[in-house]
Amino acid sequence: MTTNNASNTYLSSKVMTASSQELTLMLYDGALKFCNQAIRALENQKTVEAHNFIIKTENIIIEFMSTVDTKYDVGKNLDAMYNYIYRKLMEANTKKDKQILEEVQGYLRELRDTWKEAMEMSKVKKAVNE
């Protein structure tokens, strides 16, 4: 088995056994990774590569937008945030603007860190109640 195949098998296994909370965290991590790769590509004047990484980031944001529950205020706020991030990604892609991507990266990092903290708090609460 090649290293790439082993890596893909591991990732596939990780995704298939992850909880919905862990999958969300993986998506945030992926969005951050792709956004960072887009920034690095722009720094190296690789605009096609940057475009592809921005599209990958956009696709993750679209996934978040399609699954957010807007019945409650927190969902409405998340939906507005995802829409803002998506628009900024489109703008960054059109203008090939690293600063816009850095702004998006900051928001993604904050959302990811908040999600991870909520997961940890949920685990602690569950452990206390058992």
Summed up, the helix count is: 5
Largest sheet: none
Poorly predicted parts: none
CATH class: Mainly Alpha
The computed structural class is: mainly alpha
Number of strands: 0
Order of helices and strands: HHHHH
Mean pLDDT: 91
| CATH topology tier name | Four Helix Bundle (Hemerythrin (Met), subunit A)
- Share of helix among residues? over 70%
CATH architecture: Up-down Bundle
Cα distance spanning the termini: 43 Å
Give an account of the 3D structure:
The protein is mostly helical and 130 residues long. It has a single domain (18-125), classed as Four Helix Bundle (Hemerythrin (Met), subunit A). The chain is built from 5 helices and no strands. Helix 2 packs antiparallel against helix 3 (47-67) and helix 3 packs antiparallel against helix 4. The longest helix has 32 residues, at 98-129.
